[in-house]
Design goal:
It contains nine helices and eleven strands. It is an alpha/beta fold and about 325 residues long. It folds into two domains: about 160 residues, NAD(P)-binding Rossmann-like Domain (Rossmann fold, 3-Layer(aba) Sandwich); about 140 residues, L-2-Hydroxyisocaproate Dehydrogenase, Chain A, domain 2 (Alpha-Beta Complex). A six-stranded parallel beta sheet has the order 3-2-1-4-5-6, sandwiched between helices. A three-stranded antiparallel beta sheet has the order 9-10-11. A hairpin with a 2-residue loop joins strand 10 and strand 11. The N terminus is likely disordered. Keywords: NAD, Oxidoreductase, Tricarboxylic acid cycle. Its EC number is 1.1.1.37. It catalyses: (S)-malate + NAD(+) = oxaloacetate + NADH + H(+).
Length: about 325
């Protein structure tokens, strides 16, 4: 994940030294995410913030021998934590419990994300914002509304992190096909919950799977998070795999900012793909560059089955996005 540097072309003028802030660094995702970011040599200043525990996480992570500074910040230090950040990653919020959907987290996490977005808008308005806090389909629109209200909205620098769906797709496909997941590249589009998660299996070598296997595989990719929630038995949701996904996406954003070429990830962004149908945000392949989103890619050729999945996803996404937008407008 951090070894891609040698294989890409660089812009001679771009920086490779960046400040990254993690908001929610003391949590189940935040701690391993902070560790993984400490291993990224582009991250030269790592700012860890939380309502409690961030200085301890920072002291611990700071002992990892890579050439970067790490500092932890308490709630009264958020200005210092955010000022000068190039990338801000937000995993803050409460985890799912058994029987909960990501949407059930909305009331609690919506307020948390709104307040952190306000701080980001004030203290680091030019930073790339990577939203992990669920439900992503609704929290990303909340952040967009906050930034619009503050007059600093840049759609090229707001991302919903859907990378975990891509990682799961690679892993689950490999288990069905008996292959190495490292070699499985699966595009996952739509959103980041349930039926809005659409793995484009027809665009892989596994497009001829029997219908029953295909349906089971798609369902597992869509609801794979439930496996973790159930297995943790009330102790939380996906944290380690989500941290890996967040670190991978943050690494790609940094690669883009540094001027590397052909940096492509799937992510939930302000998208033109279905805007004329009322879908303001959609996840698809995106080329990342020095200004954030360089290009939003189309979905390519889909099977009839996938066309049906996309139609269902769009209907759900419109509702999810409206829920976030309405919250932000009603609770400024």
């Amino acid at each position: 994940m951090f070894g891609k540097i040698a294989s890409r072309n660089f812009s001679s003028t771009a920086s490779t030294a960046y400040k990254v802030a993690v908001l929610g660094a003391g949590g189940g995702i935040g701690q391993p995410l902070s560790l993984l970011l400490k291993l990224n040599h582009k991250v030269t200043d790592l700012a860890l913030y939380d309502i409690k525990g961030a200085p301890g996480v920072a002291a611990d992570v700071s002992h990892v021998p890579t050439n970067s500074t790490v500092k932890g910040y308490n709630p009264d230090q958020i200005k210092e934590a955010l000022t000068g950040s190039d990338v801000i990653v937000i995993p803050a919020g409460v985890p799912r419990k058994p029987g909960m959907s990501r949407d059930d987290l909305f009331n609690t996490n919506a307020s948390i994300v709104r307040d952190l977005a306000k701080a980001a808008a004030e203290y680091s308005p030019n930073a790339a914002l990577l939203i992990i806090s669920n439900p992503v389909n609704s929290t990303v629109p909340i952040v967009a509304e906050v930034l619009k209200e503050k007059g600093v909205y840049n759609p090229k620098k707001l991302f919903g992190v859907t990378t975990l769906d891509v990682l799961r797709a690679s892993r689950f496909v490999s288990e069905v096909a008996g292959t190495n997941p490292v070699n499985e590249k699966v595009t996952v589009v739509g959103g980041h919950s349930g039926v809005t998660i659409i793995p484009l299996l027809s665009q892989t070598v596994h497009k001829s799977l029997p219908t029953d296997k295909r349906d089971a595989l798609v369902h597992r990719i869509q609801f794979g998070g439930d496996e973790v929630v159930k297995a943790k038995d009330g102790a939380g949701s996906a944290t380690l795999s989500m941290a890996q996904a967040g670190a991978r996406f943050a690494s790609s954003v940094l690669d883009g900012l540094a001027g590397e070429r052909d940096v492509i990830e799937c992510t939930f962004v302000d998208s033109p793909l279905f805007k004329d149908e009322g879908v303001e945000f959609f996840s698809s392949k995106v080329t990342l560059g020095v200004d954030g989103v360089e290009k939003v890619h189309g979905l390519g050729e889909l099977s009839d089955y996938e066309e049906g999945l996309v139609k269902e996803a769009k209907d759900t996404l419109i509702k999810n996005i409206k829920k976030g937008t309405d919250f932000a407008k009603q609770n400024p």
